[in-house]
């Protein structure tokens, strides 16, 4: 992503969100820079980063939880 996205994003797909989250994790940008650049609420970007971290943690488990099991644990 590296801030070379289309001028105006009409829809934030999972692919676009994950690219932005990856840039944040890699230190290429910050949450505040991303929120300003793409006119997003910082809390929204923060939630994407947290979701990404949770998803990554599950993917790296020896026995990953399925989506339903993850949801039920959060409740």
Automatic annotation (TrEMBL):
Which molecular function GO terms apply here?
sequence-specific DNA binding
A single Pfam family it belongs to is: DUF1153
**Superkingdom of source:** Bacteria
Q: Which Gene3D superfamilies match?
A: Winged helix-like DNA-binding domain superfamily/Winged helix DNA-binding domain (1.10.10.10)
Q: Which InterPro entries match?
A: DUF1153, Trp_repressor/repl_initiator, WH-like_DNA-bd_sf
User: What is the protein name for this chain?
Assistant: Transposase
């Amino acid at each position: 992503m590296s801030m070379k996205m289309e001028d105006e994003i009409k829809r934030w797909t999972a692919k676009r969100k994950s690219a932005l989250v990856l840039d944040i994790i890699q230190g290429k940008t910050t949450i505040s820079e991303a929120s300003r650049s793409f006119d997003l609420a910082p809390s929204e970007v923060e939630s994407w980063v947290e979701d990404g971290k949770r998803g990554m943690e599950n993917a790296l488990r020896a026995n990953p939880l399925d989506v339903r099991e993850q949801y039920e644990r959060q409740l």
